[in-house]
Design goal:
- The complex is a heterodimer of chains A (271) and B (273).
- By secondary structure, chain A is mostly helical.
- Chain A folds into two domains: 43 residues; 200 residues, MetI-like (MetI-like fold, Orthogonal Bundle).
- Helices cover 76% and strands 3% of the residues of chain A.
- Chain A is built from eleven helices and two strands; from the N terminus they run ββααααααααααα.
- Chain A has a two-stranded antiparallel ribbon.
- In chain A, strand 1 and strand 2 form a beta hairpin.
- In chain A, helix 9 runs parallel beside helix 10.
- Chain A is flat, with a radius of gyration of 26 Å.
- Chain B has 273 residues and is mainly α.
- The chains are: A mainly alpha (271), B mainly alpha (273).
- At the A-B interface, helix 1, helix 3, helix 4, helix 5 and helix 6 of A face helix 1, helix 2, helix 3, helix 5 and helix 6 of B.
Chain lengths: 271, 273
């Protein structure tokens, strides 16, 4: 225990001298980095606009309230599209994620040396690129529309689902698998009767969890042209129809809250 | 050995069947039928322009090929600038977001804060979690003008909701005994937090913070699409000009940085826990 001697008095200290010096250095470096970053941001900012911000935000608020409620009749189809993008995207991504997860899990991969790294690369690269970027890319390739949104959500979700799923596969109880193997089951039978029942709750939980996230993400995919309610949002923003924007934001908020509630309910029922 | 009492005795000659995942038959069939009906309805309403998709496959092939020969050089200035801006935004927003979320997390933990403060902090968290980064970014760009400041504020705001919620949950599940021991020694409230609570939640705070830095970097890559600074603007331009090799270079840089961050966070989390 580090103790500082102050004459005859012994005072307890949390850290020894070297430790506290090290801590102090870390803080110094951290603050220096932050100061540099802040300076960069500050240089790139037009401060006049920032000082003007309260007036602007008040202006936007007066324009945006009250929301244009009758516009909701035009939002039915976009919301249906958004729901479809999220749901179909999740389903497709689950079909793609299951094999990737089995190839990535240490205890089921056919080859830890060659195939596992490839599966892990698929997981990392699909996870690290946001669905908006995937949508941007797919719109350039297959044209704007709901289909591009579905594919973007599907690709983006592979990494997430496969990562959680392969962690679940790695944590399964090996004795059950061994028991099935001991009955003389083939590789696929071991899979179906030894592994799948163990990961089924995790799988259902992941599917619903990802669906919830996908509802959130699909609401904004339209900003780049991939269909759904975001398309209405971006066109309203482009013509500065703030009452419509505020209504759309309310609808998106409601959709997010509802989907979160559904997913929490379903996951509680499963677990 | 006797059979478990719950399993119905099987008549001889009838093969065993897997028990279904959802036990109640009516719920199972409603879910299956409803799901199929939904799928049919969904497929009927999505109109895919297959000829457009077919035309696009050629471009898709070009893009995939571009990944084999990414062009880092011809737009290196723009990529470098955008990346630096993204990283600067990430670092600054993470620092500010974490600094703000610690007091909010303390306020949102029921065993530390009184009820009125608890409710205020919980509603801040709920608002921050319900609004998406990109929508917040659109509003902030409209208010503060284009540039990294809007992105920085967006990411800080999003960090608050994420970090405070998880940290508050950790504070709520901490060991009461240690905290009480500090209190019994006559510590003031600040000392109690500093010596009784903080050491218990520190490993989790560090782990969550690093994870959030990782998320913030990924998000900062798209904020440029709505004018909030960062690499997204460069990426968007590259797509618009069909410069797939430059876009591939940007995407590869993002993936590499995310992988490096993930590796780093793994190492740091293993050390603190």
């Amino acid at each position: 225990m580090p103790v500082r001697e102050n004459g005859s008095l012994k005072v307890w200290q949390r850290r020894s001298g070297r430790e506290s010096l090290f801590h102090w250095l870390i803080w110094l470096v951290g603050i220096a980095i932050f100061a540099y970053c802040w300076q960069q941001i500050s240089n790139a900012t037009t401060w006049f606009f920032v000082w003007d911000a309260p007036r602007i935000s008040q202006d936007i608020w007066t324009r945006a309230t009250p929301p244009r409620w009758e516009y909701i009749s035009q939002l039915g189809k976009p919301i249906w599209d958004t729901l479809n993008i999220a749901t179909l995207g999740t389903i497709i991504s689950l079909f793609l994620a299951v094999p990737v997860a089995f190839l990535a899990a240490r205890n089921t991969t056919p080859s830890a040396l060659f195939i596992r790294p490839i599966a892990l690369l698929i997981i990392v690269s699909t996870r690290s690129i946001n669905s908006l970027i995937w949508a941007l890319l797919l719109i350039a390739i297959i044209g704007p529309g709901v289909f591009a949104g579905v594919v973007a959500i599907a690709i983006r979700s592979i990494g997430f689902c496969a990562k959680l799923l392969y962690e679940a596969i790695e944590e399964i109880d090996a004795t059950q698998v061994e028991a099935i193997t001991a009955t003389g089951a083939s590789r696929w039978q071991v899979m179906a009767y030894g592994i799948v029942p163990q990961i089924m709750p995790a799988f259902a939980g992941i599917a619903v969890f990802r669906w919830d996230i996908n509802i959130r993400e699909s609401t904004v995919l339209g900003l780049v042209g991939a269909g759904g309610i975001g398309l209405q949002l971006s066109s309203s923003l482009n013509v500065l129809a703030w009452p419509q924007v505020s209504l759309i934001l309310l609808v998106i908020l409601a959709a997010v809250v509802i989907s979160e509630w559904v997913s929490a309910k379903v996951r509680a029922a499963i677990i | 050995m006797s059979a478990p009492s719950t399993a119905a005795p099987l008549p001889i000659g009838q093969p065993w069947r897997k028990p279904p995942f959802i036990k109640r038959p009516w719920l199972r069939w409603t879910l299956i039928i409803g799901f199929i009906a939904y799928l049919i309805a969904a497929f009927l309403t999505i109109d895919v322009n297959w000829s457009r998709v077919y035309d696009g496959l050629e471009r898709g092939k070009q893009f995939v090929l571009a990944f084999t020969s990414p062009d880092f050089t011809s737009r290196s200035g723009d990529i470098w600038e955008g990346m630096i801006e993204s990283i600067v935004m990430t670092v600054a927003a993470s620092v500010v977001g974490i600094a703000i979320s610690i007091p909010i997390a303390l306020g949102a933990a029921r065993n530390v804060a009184p009820l009125p403060i608890y409710l205020i902090c919980r509603s801040i968290i709920a608002v921050s979690r319900a609004l998406q980064e990109i929508i917040v970014a659109i509003l902030l760009v409209a208010i503060f003008g284009f540039g990294p400041l809007a992105g920085f504020l967006t990411l800080s705001f999003a960090t608050i909701g994420f970090l405070s919620k998880l940290l508050a949950e950790d504070i709520e599940s901490m060991d009461r005994v240690q905290a009480e021991a500090i209190k019994a020694s006559g510590a003031k409230w600040t000392q109690w937090i500093n010596y009784g609570v903080q050491p218990q939640v520190m490993p989790r705070l560090i782990g969550l913070s690093i994870y959030r830095v990782d998320i913030n970097f990924r998000e900062s890559a798209i904020l440029g699409l709505v004018g909030a600074g960062g690499i997204g603007a460069t990426l968007n331009t590259a797509f618009d000009r069909y410069e797939y090799d430059t876009a591939a270079a940007i995407l590869i840089s993002i993936i590499v940085i995310v992988m490096a961050l993930e590796y780093l966070s793994g190492v740091i989390r293993a050390r603190v826990q």
